[in-house]
């Protein structure tokens, strides 16, 4: 099975900061990776798919990139609404898998 | 607009069974794969199972394989999760999620979830 490892587990940042979250796959998944944002008590929200494609309606400050088996979610200028937990998810395999999550906290 | 409404959660004893339902509306249900994803209290997301648009293909996560079954009724726009031999570690909020394609890729819509608590 493909394992997804996210880092860091927690990130403290301030409004306006550039934030980067990393997700590493245990084997090649091409660009078959999505990113989600989840706020407490809410369902996740799709941000990025196919590694770097921005979901409709998602602010352009969110971007995704890939290099081999390492994927990155970047928030160019952190906004108050962005404090949440972020998950990556691979869909290269029939057995889907999420990373363990990265919580973005207020510094 | 797309709506997914889960039901059937509750408190159940270890070893017993429970059946979850997910009522879908606002899209052509029979054209898309559907998933169950769960989240234990204070923990991350765990993919549980997927069923293809026509019900012909199903896959399960290792932790539920052999105990859980996924099915769908396209005539009633409803997704099901039959959970047998429940364990304490199955305690979680269970989300129904719509795939963007006919089978298993990623999720563009989620329900609000239903809480399953396995406890004696």
Commentary on this structure:
The complex is a heterodimer of chains A (107) and B (120). Chain A is mostly beta strands and 107 residues long. Chain A contains no helices and 11 strands. In chain A, a hairpin with a 2-residue loop joins β7 and β8. The radius of gyration of chain A is 13 Å and the shape is globular. Chain B is mostly beta strands. Helices cover 0% and strands 51% of the residues of chain B. In chain B, β5 and β6 (58-60) form a beta hairpin. Chain B is globular. The model of chain B has no long low-confidence stretch (mean pLDDT 97). Chain A binds chain B through residues 1, 32, 34, 36, 38, 43-46, 49, 55, 85, 87, 89, 91, 94-101, and chain B through 35, 44-47, 50, 59, 61-62, 95, 100, 104-108, 110-113.
Determine Rg of chain B (CA atoms, Å). 13 Å
- Poorly predicted runs of 5 or more residues of chain B: none
Largest interface: A-B, 23 and 20 residues
H and E string of chain A: EEEEEEEEEEE
Q: Helix-strand pattern of chain B, N to C?
A: EEEEEEEEEEE
- Shape, principal axes of CA atoms of chain B: globular
Q: What structural class is derived from the secondary structure elements of chain B?
A: mainly beta
* End-to-end gap of chain A: 36 Å
Low-pLDDT residue spans of chain A: none
Supply the number of helical segments of chain B.
Answer: 0
Helix and strand content put the structural class of chain A at mainly beta
Q: What percent of residues of chain B adopt helix (DSSP H or I)?
A: under 10%
Q: Total strand count of chain A, please?
A: 11
Sheet-strand content of chain A, in percent, reads over 45%
């Amino acid at each position: 099975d493909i394992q997804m490892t996210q880092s860091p587990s927690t990130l403290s940042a301030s409004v306006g900061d550039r934030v980067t979250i990393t997700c590493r796959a245990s084997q090649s998944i091409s660009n078959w990776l999505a990113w989600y944002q989840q706020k407490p008590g809410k369902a996740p929200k799709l941000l990025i798919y196919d590694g770097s494609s921005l979901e409709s309606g998602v602010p352009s400050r969110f971007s995704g990139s890939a290099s081999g088996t390492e994927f990155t979610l970047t928030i160019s200028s952190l906004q108050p609404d962005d404090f949440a937990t972020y998950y990556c998810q691979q869909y290269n395999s029939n057995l889907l898998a999420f990373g363990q999550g990265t919580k973005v906290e207020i510094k | 607009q797309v709506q997914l409404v889960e039901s059937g959660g509750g408190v159940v004893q270890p070893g017993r069974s429970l059946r979850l339902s997910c009522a879908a509306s606002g899209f052509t249900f029979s054209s898309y794969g559907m998933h169950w994803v769960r989240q234990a209290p204070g923990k991350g997301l765990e993919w549980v199972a997927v069923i293809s648009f026509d019900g012909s293909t199903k896959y399960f996560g290792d932790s539920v394989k052999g105990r859980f079954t996924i099915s769908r009724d396209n005539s009633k726009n409803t997704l099901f999760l039959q959970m047998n031999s429940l364990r304490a570690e199955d305690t979680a909020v269970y989300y129904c999620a719509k795939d963007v394609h006919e089978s298993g890729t990623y999720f563009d819509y989620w329900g609000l979830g239903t809480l399953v608590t396995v406890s004696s």
